Structures are given as C-alpha cells and as structure tokens.
Amino acid sequence: MTSRRVRQRRALALGVGLLVVVVWFVSCSTMSQSPLAAEPFPEAAREARWSAGIDQANAASLPIATLADPQWVSDTAAKTGIPERALAAYAGAALRLSVTSPECGLTWNTLAGIGWVESHHGTIFDGYITEDGSMSEPVYGITLDGDNGTMALPDFDDGNFDLDPNADRAVGPMQIIPPTWAAWHIDANLDGVEDGQSIDDSSLVSAGYLCYNSDTMTTRAGWNQSIRSYNDVPIYAIDVAAKADEYARATSCVIFC
Prior knowledge:
The protein is mainly alpha-helical. It has helices at residues 4-16, 28-31, 70-80, 84-100, 108-119, 178-184, 199-212, 220-230, 234-250.
C-alpha cells in the first residue's frame, strides 16, 4: 500500500505538474503551426512483443529493458528511427504498465513521442544513450525561473536532483522535474540506483505519472489530460501526438506482421 508520505508527494507533484520545457529545442516549423481546433489523439501502435519466457506473472520483477522481444525492438527501431536502447525502455515501460495498470492503456509510441520532443531520444546536444541505459552526458533543462517563457519553480530539494539550488530544472532524457521525481522515483533497471538520467528509470517514472493523471489514455479526453499534466502547453500535445502517429504508421501492418 502506498505510504502517506508518497501520496503527499504525488499530490504535490500533481499540483506542480511535470512542466518539462525544452525551449532551445522547438523548431520554427512547429512554432508556426496554428493550434488545432480539436485536441489531438494519436493512433495506438500495436503492443510490443513480449520477450520469450516473460509473462504477466514475472513482468513486474524484471528490468524493463528486458521485457520487449529483442527482435521486435530491432525491427521496430529500423522502421521508426528510434535508437534501440531508448525503444527497449519505452516498450518495456508500456508493457509493465499493461500489467500493473491495464486500464491506463498507455502505448509505447506515446512514450516515444514524449522522448522525441523532450530530448530526441537522448541525442540532444550530441549525446546518446549508452548500452546500460545511461546518458553519455547528463541532460539538464534550462532553469525554470520565470524567464524565457518558463513558469517559475522555486527550488524543491536544495538542488539534489537537478544540481541547481536556486530554481528547479528538468532532468534526463524524459525531462523530469524534482517534485515529480521525488514522488515517482524508481529503479526500473534494477541496478540499485534510482537515476533520472537513466532512460529506463525516467521512462517508467513518466509512464506511472501519465497513468496516474487520468482514468485512461485510450480516449481523446483521457490522453490529453495525461499529456497536459506532463506539459500544459497546447503545442506540446500536438507535437507528441504527431510523432506518436508517425511511429504508429511506420509499424502498422499492411498484410502480414
């Protein structure tokens, strides 16, 4: 059962929101788009194929990067352009949530859409995700002090998570802020360290946070409610949905799968 302290932290995280703002990253073409009249809602990609020997009985006790079948990861990465190590984390997190929160309906391509918008799957600033899921160089967002169009977020934890004692910054390939990490932190790769710079740990934190913020992501309203909790800027949901749709189309079956 979730402790009272964790519930309080999660409530605080909800109040603050994930608010991941990567101002340096938004393209001119994206900014020139007009907001859509209707809320976006991406196509749900086919669920990743489970690795051999893994099922619902043991999925919650294994590193998430091992849950998706390696051949599926390799084939899907080739079709989508998503780095294999990042895709293994997105797919593994979605598979894990299909067991622990099946009502949520979170898909790997939505997580991949977020990963693209936030850090180009960890390749922003010429970085990359290493074989163990870590960043080649740590990724930190700009200081959220109210400048550059950001919301002012006073320091939450003396800079312990984001290394900034003055104001909060988003951290890692999924750009998670300190209050959210404090509420949802997890060791998803079972290496003994909870690390916001790990694509495994940050993907599972993001997945849990998204599923916590709406009853289901299988409806337009529910999907948008979850994505708005991550970043409440209309263009953000549009960009994530567009990329998620691109990945779904790239992996859709024409005749045989």
